[in-house]
Amino acid sequence: MKRTVQRMLVLAVVMFALVGLIAGVAQAKEKVLTIAGFSTDTVDAHMTTAEYFVPLNAFDRLVQVEPGSNPPKIVPMLAEKWNVSKDGKVFTFFLRKGVKFHNGEELTADDVLYTFDRVLNPATKSFQTDLFDFVEGARERLDGKADSVSGFKVLDKYTFQITLKEPYAPFLASMGTPGANIYNRKFTEEFGAKFGQTAESTCGTGPFILKEYVLNDHFTLVANPDYWAGKAKIDKLVARIVPDSETLRLMFLTGEIDIFDCDQGFSQIPFFMEDAKWKDLIHRGPRVGLVYMTMNNQMKPFDDVRVRKAFQMAVDRKKILDTVYFGNGILIDGIIPRGLVGYNPEALPKIEYNPAKAKELLVEAGYPDGVDVTLTQVTGWSNRWVQINELFQQMVKDAGFNVKLEAVDSATYYAKRKEGGLMAYPQIWSLDTNDPDGTIYNFFYKDRSFGRSICYNNEAAMNKIIELRFMPDQEQRMKEYNELEKTIVHDDAAWLPLFSVDHLYVLQPRVKNFVVPWNGWSDMSYYPMDVED
Q: What pTM value is reported for the model?
């Protein structure tokens, strides 16, 4: 009997040790992905457009762009399906049942109502009100003339309806952006204006739960075990705030960071492209947007279309791409960038590089001895814009353009641009909505165009821009956008598109299932990804 008790005690000790060993092994195999993030004083996407790492991982939207789809495709997220009325004005969303917020509350149509009304509530002072510009009653709510939005309606516990004032083709795409993240009424009302400012005050339905939020240091998110689409493969997601690109590179090389986003360390690209160990671990995709040079269509000498066409022809865009962006990208001859629905380079002529012909056009326009132009850049901004302007200055000289480079502070730059007072400047535009309207309307429609110092003035094109915003037939709409690109860029030479650049990421070999984000951001959802030990 005594021996039996001793054996049982020994067996218990062995079992206890094995359990401890197994637990230790399990803990050692925790899958952690570490990236470099950006600091922000809130992760409430209604109140910021500066940081979308947490909003894209701790929250969901009604719809999303399918990861890896090309062209980008809108697919279900919190709404398992939706209907659109024949007149294109009424959107009915049918929510998934059983979806839980991180606080345990079930998602209902009332949460959607609360979320969208919160954006338009004038007391919120949200940055995302333009998402709902076309919703019936939105303006009245935003102006404080109504206590609710007439175009928002809860049909039942899992059905939510939005009615627009008039058909607006890009509306569904806008519902897939972080500004349309869905919040829980009970939780968000409890924290009020402090929602999203700490881990404790953050709650979504997303695949990760925010556990640590140390301002200017790091975010830590853990996998949501109850996520409606299944638990993420990554157990923990850490975003460290890194002060500079050289430090980031060193942290990556020592394995402290798993993903090196080259947008955060642009100057490091040649190192990785030329390094035998890393060059084959570079993942790339189009940054959905484009680099461009503006020309003020109402300011001499660019008020003459011949001068604008001459300026287009005088520039070797490929050389600029190779010099400034190390050849990572492709030339763009229109307005719709690659990676966006509607991109169709075959529908457009190519912008010719021909300095001799450019010079002939200047003579024809009345400038036989050349013409003076000013290119503006902002002091302290990326050296890329200095490089681009200096290359322009050198290149267009042969065609007869005498370029003066002007450097101003950002306040002066934005003030002059808003007043239509800049002659020309280079810049980059990135999109967050999967629709051409985001660029074409914002750059070439009346007051928007004036506010960017483009000052486009083709009335027929303006009317077409508005018409296409409300055209329900998407296939026909995209064809007409391509015609509009031809009118604006080639017939009117209203601006000079340069190129679409690649978004480069260098990955540690342990990172699997990486998908380059479809849009122009650095932030992305890490839900599809995995890591190996």
A: 0.85
